[in-house]
Specification:
The structure is a single chain. With 271 residues, this protein is of the alpha/beta class. The protein has one domain: Rossmann fold (3-Layer(aba) Sandwich). The chain contains 9 helices and 10 strands. Strands 1, 2, 3, 4, 5, 6, 7, 8, 9 and 10 form a 10-stranded mixed beta sheet that branches. Helix 4 packs across helix 5 (154-162), helix 5 (154-162) packs parallel to helix 7 (213-222) and helix 7 runs parallel beside helix 8. The protein is globular, with a radius of gyration of 17 Å.
Length: 271
Amino acid sequence: MPSMEPTRILYVCTAMEPYLPACEIATVVRQLSQGVQDKGREIRTFLPRYGCINERRNQLHEVIRLSGMNLIINDTDRPLIIKVATLPSARMQIYFIDNEDYFQRRAVLHDEAGNLFEDNDERSIFFARGVLETVKKLRWAPDIVHCHGWFSCFLAIFLKKAYKDDPLFASSKIVLSLYDEQFTRPLHSDVKQKLVMEGIKAKDVELLSEPSYENFMKLAIQYSNGLILGSKEVAQALVAYAKSLKKPVLDYQGEDYIAAYNTFYDKIIGK
């Protein structure tokens, strides 16, 4: 009998060690991606190429065959640049989504005064679409797309609406990890209009008429297949919302989470 193909997991994340300072998401993604790969899964990991990531020290280089596409965000063409680095100790390639307007600034999500950047909605939209377009160029069909951090979560609606007819993503399932995070202010008031495109109508993003953190995450939950509580403390309104929609929810696992996440992936894809 031929051996089964390994499950393919796409990690889409706000942060990851060693490219960004240690935080809950950065540490989890680093350990999880290697741990899951060590259990025989095939993985790809994507994160934004923030300006604070040292390209020379981390040996990032542009992948010309993947770069060169333009994405239209808010009626403006934005060049998509793809860079890659390798974690030798883990034998993992890490892909970075880059654009001069969105990701050259030194800060990650906040300015020097601690305020969220006004264009974080566009940066997040560009990141999500950039990931999906790059995966298409790689011709790599993920079984699970696991999003970590709110900045990655527009990917859920794009995958389930705008890209739903792409055969590469026909069987892909979305898993969201909920963390102890918040917006200090809502997303831009016209974010709804920026999301409307082929496959996405205004009614699909009605929750973003008031683009608060809670509404944004509720929208992502609507288009997900399962939720993981990645922090000990997460917004209980979001957990209740997920359960009201009958979404499978994996409770917080503490430090010993890799085996539980693996089992949850199998549950989501029906193995």
